[in-house]
Specification:
Helix content is 25%, strand content 28%. The chain is an alpha/beta fold and 303 residues long. A six-stranded mixed beta sheet has the order 10-9-8-11-16-15, with helices on both faces. Bound molecules: guanosine-5'-diphosphate and zinc ion (ZN). Guanosine-5'-diphosphate (GDP) binds at residues 117-118, 120-121, 145-147, 168, 170-176, 189, 191.
């Protein structure tokens, strides 16, 4: 018997499926000790397993290695970054929705890469505008097309060696992209999981999909409405990277960057160094969060 280190890909009714580099996937049970200590292994956890049977690929989870972080929805540990996918057309990108997603990721301190798919629908000019908008905010922007098979190498490079949560509204081509990145799991166009490994039918549950020896993605469902849970209007400027530094140059401490004079954020906007759409969405979020707090001073959006 030997101990191996691996990564939990999924957990179903008490069984954990642990991927070990060069050995494959082991079906494992968690040691009773975890339950007593009230520790539950999570998808994404790096674990030490004791192999019970090499032929049957069975083992026990003996130890959970320290987590770098933990997300609750969906429950997953050790996420390194997010990849958010929107389409250039069909559907056209909803930048307010995108910006709300970015704000949420900034709050979780998760680096995010933006992918605009279906780039075959548009010309260079349309791409350039989005590229400038988001690169000036500090984000890496990738254009892809599963139709023209472009941008996929760039996506692969971003994913390499990391655990990435992949999000995006439905219809943008997320499943098509995931299918082109690997062949172990086939995603249906409605976002349902069709098969894994042996072709077994599986229900919808969070799981990691391996795109290379050391790269994993987590398909993140549920993305359609603007929601900024637990965020207050006063911290929004911290969550827009292109405003984060500037706010210290505003005349007033606690400047909201709306109507105040001598506002460094407004100056940067006027100089064209903050994109109009980003600033407009900042304003919209600010007003919305402030309004919500007036209704419920304890913080309506807190969870
Ligand atoms: P999901 O809902 O985000 O998973 O999107 P799907 O992968 O199911 O794709 C939605 C539709 O867009 C399908 O009809 C795909 O064939 C189509 N599609 C996906 N990627 C592209 C692309 O790069 N270009 C074009 N023109 N269509 C695409
Ligand atoms: Zn200001």
């Amino acid at each position: 018997m030997s101990l191996k280190t691996g990564r939990i890909l999924k957990g179903i009714s008490g069984f954990y499926y642990v991927y070990v580099v060069e050995s494959g996937i082991y079906e494992c049970k968690a040691k009773g000790a975890f339950r007593k200590e009230n520790i539950k292994p999570l998808v994404g956890d790096e674990v030490r397993i004791q192999v019970i049977s090499e032929e049957e690929k069975k083992g026990n989870v003996e130890e959970i290695l320290p987590r770098s972080m933990e997300l609750s929805r969906p429950p997953v540990a050790n996420v390194d970054q997010a990849l958010v996918i929107f389409a250039m057309k069909k559907p056209a990108p909803n930048l307010r929705l995108l910006d709300s997603f970015l704000v949420n990721m900034e709050e979780k301190e998760l680096p995010t890469v933006i992918c605009f798919n279906k780039s075959d629908f548009v010309n260079e000019e349309e791409k350039e505008l989005l590229k400038q908008t988001y690169e000036s905010a500090g984000y890496q922007v990738i254009f892809s097309s599963t139709k023209e098979k472009s941008g996929l190498d760039e996506i692969k490079a971003v994913l390499e060696g990391k655990l990435t949560t992949v999000a995006g509204p439905s219809g943008v081509g997320k499943s098509s992209i995931i299918n082109m990145l690997q062949s172990e799991v086939t995603m249906e166009t409605d976002g349902m999981m069709k098969k894994m490994d042996s072709g077994k039918q599986t229900t919808r549950h969070s799981q990691l999909i391996r795109v290379s020896e050391n790269s994993f993605i987590m398909d993140t469902p549920g993305f359609g409405s603007i929601d900024l849970p637990g965020i207050e209007e006063g911290e929004l400027d911290e969550l827009f990277p292109e405003m984060r530094e500037e706010k210290y140059d505003c005349k007033f401490a606690g400047c909201a960057h709306l109507k105040e004079p001598d506002c460094a954020v407004k100056e940067k906007l006027a100089a064209g160094k903050i994109a109009e759409s980003r600033y407009e969405n900042y304003q919209a979020f600010y007003e919305e969060l402030k309004g919500a707090r007036k209704l419920d001073p304890k913080g309506l959006k807190k969870r």
